[in-house]
Amino acid sequence: MAGGAMAGAWDRLRALLRAVNVLLQQRRYHAALAVLKGFRNGAVYGAKIRAPHALVMTFLFKSGSLREKLKSIAQATYAHSRNLAYFVFTYKGLLAAQSQLQGKKIPFHSFLAACIGGWLVFGDNNPINSQIIMYLLSRILFGLSRLAVEKGYIPQPKQDPFPLVAALVWGTVLWLFEYHKETLQPSLQSSMTYLYEDSEAWHDLSDFLIYNKRTDSK
Fold first, then answer.
1. To bridge 38 with a disulfide, which of 12, 45, 65, 92 should be the other Cys (CB 3.0-4.6 Å)?
2. Phi-psi region of 208 (alpha: psi -120 to 50; beta: other; left: phi over 0)
3. Between 211 and 162, where is the model more confident?
4. Per the domain annotation, does 2 fall within a domain?
5. Which GO terms describe its cellular component (predicted)?
6. According to the model, what pLDDT value does residue 16 have?
């Protein structure tokens, strides 16, 4: 009796999976399904990116109990995952809507949909959103520079400009850190404090070579 019920349940499950697979193959539902998969991919990618970063930064630079650190990691991972999922969902939904209304897809659709999604999802000025926006900004500057050369707006450099860019970036960021530290993003401040300020102080071999800072009262 129990075996027959189990077999019936498996048959229903297989029938459901076949129906879902048939639905996924329907081209008329492609735009809506792409929005849903975009939400899924945004959530997964956000978690993959944020979890290891939060793990390292939390255990390197944050104080507190193990429970507090794990809670901080979970909160940061959730926030990044949620925001990316919401953004991809919004962007792809607006993109599909514009394409449906105008009967075709044009470049401005991408810009407008992303602007609206960026305003709605990433408009809150918090550490997670700030890191994402700064990450994107650096890539945008590189991308626009390459596009300007490709389109002929600026001449092709005779030499690789990257060494000069590297020099200017490091020169500027260390000047800001030394004299205007408050202008830098908190996690960057923490990293640079560890590298450039904490390396100026020690008491004996223990906090010179083994530990960054002594935790005892000696």
1. 92
2. alpha
3. 162
4. no
5. peroxisomal membrane
6. 82
- What number of CA atoms fall less than 13 Å from residue 66's CA on the CB side? 0
Same domain, 21 and 117: yes
Q: Which residue range(s) make up the domain with 146?
A: 126-156
Exposed/middle/buried for residue 76 (C-beta within 10 Å: 0-12, 13-18, 19+)? buried
**CA gap 49, 144 in Å, rounded:** 25
The helix (H) or strand (E) run that includes residue 142 is: helix 127-150
pLDDT of residue 218: 46
* Distance in angstroms (rounded) separating the CA atoms of residues 55 and 173: 25
73 and 132 part of one domain: no
* 194 alpha carbon, distance to own chain's centre: 24
CA distance 175 to 33: 49
Residue 208 CA to its chain's centroid (Å): 35
CA distances from 180 to 62, 175, 177, 185, 218 (A): 22, 7, 6, 11, 33
Closest CA to 117 of 48, 38, 44, 186: 38
